């Protein structure tokens, strides 16, 4: 517990965590508002007239902003390598498993914080606009509640994945740029290729697709005609990615020299 408190303090004493959180909230909330407004346009392909469709405005964070908790998970590990303070941490606590475990708990906690805030902002923006437009928000319906819970869990797992990636790469600039390129360019193209080549929806085998599926379907899913019935496989797949990256990160963190 002492090591966990130490890791949390390392994050909390910088501006990075709340600047990233603010950026995620604004980005997610803006997309949620845009989704609702776009659905009101004539000939819009978006129709938010049921609980199963309105969720795409509420869980938009998992579709467009999962890179934020992922990047913060990376920062939890790489900050000490960048500042050359990792040696001091390991001198104070020689148990590398304890240090790495505390970093995974911190990354998961940050992911949970980011997911709750971003989801709340999306719900506030989306439901608020729907109310102004005189449309039902369906906030108490089972599909919406299930989707919101799925979004929170999936975004939390992205923070955990980020810790594993940070431990593997160590170089903060390379790691952050790498996750940006992979999540914003490489995987979206890969998912489009998979959807184009396959007669059934198997995009949930990719990390971003698994997150979308875990949330019960997102705006990306709706626009590409992907079914929203793979929530459990999405959870399992994203959880498997988190376990694999955390295990690989633990191997690297405990095996190699600190600097």
Automatic annotation (TrEMBL):
Domain of life: Bacteria
Species, as recorded: Streptomonospora algeriensis
Coiled coil (residue ranges): none
TM region positions: 15-41, 53-77, 112-133, 145-167, 173-190, 235-254
Keywords: Membrane, Transmembrane, Transmembrane helix
Name of the protein described by the UniProt record: ABC transporter permease
């Amino acid at each position: 517990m002492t090591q966990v408190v130490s890791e949390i303090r390392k994050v909390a004493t910088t501006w990075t965590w709340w600047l990233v959180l603010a950026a995620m909230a604004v980005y997610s909330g803006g997309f949620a508002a845009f989704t609702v407004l776009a659905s009101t346009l004539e000939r819009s392909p978006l129709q938010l007239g049921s609980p199963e469709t309105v969720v795409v405005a509420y869980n938009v964070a998992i579709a467009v902003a999962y890179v934020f908790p992922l990047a913060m998970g990376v920062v939890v590990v790489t900050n000490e390598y960048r500042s050359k303070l990792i040696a001091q941490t390991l001198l104070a606590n020689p148990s590398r498993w304890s240090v790495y475990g505390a970093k995974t708990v911190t990354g998961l906690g940050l992911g949970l914080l980011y997911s709750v805030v971003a989801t709340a902002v999306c719900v506030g923006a989306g439901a608020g606009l729907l109310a102004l437009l005189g449309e039902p928000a369906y906030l108490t319906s089972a599909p919406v509640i299930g989707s919101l819970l799925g979004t929170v869990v999936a975004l939390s797992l992205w923070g955990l994945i980020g810790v594993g990636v940070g431990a593997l790469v160590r170089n903060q600039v390379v790691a952050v740029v790498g996750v940006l390129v992979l999540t914003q360019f490489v995987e979206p193209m890969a998912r489009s290729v998979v959807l184009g080549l396959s007669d059934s929806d198997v995009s949930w085998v990719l990390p971003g697709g698994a997150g979308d599926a875990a949330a019960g379907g997102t705006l990306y899913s709706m626009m590409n005609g992907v079914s929203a019935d793979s929530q459990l496989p999405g959870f399992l797949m994203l959880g498997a990615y988190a376990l694999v990256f955390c295990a690989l990160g633990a191997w690297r963190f405990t095996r190699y020299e600190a600097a």
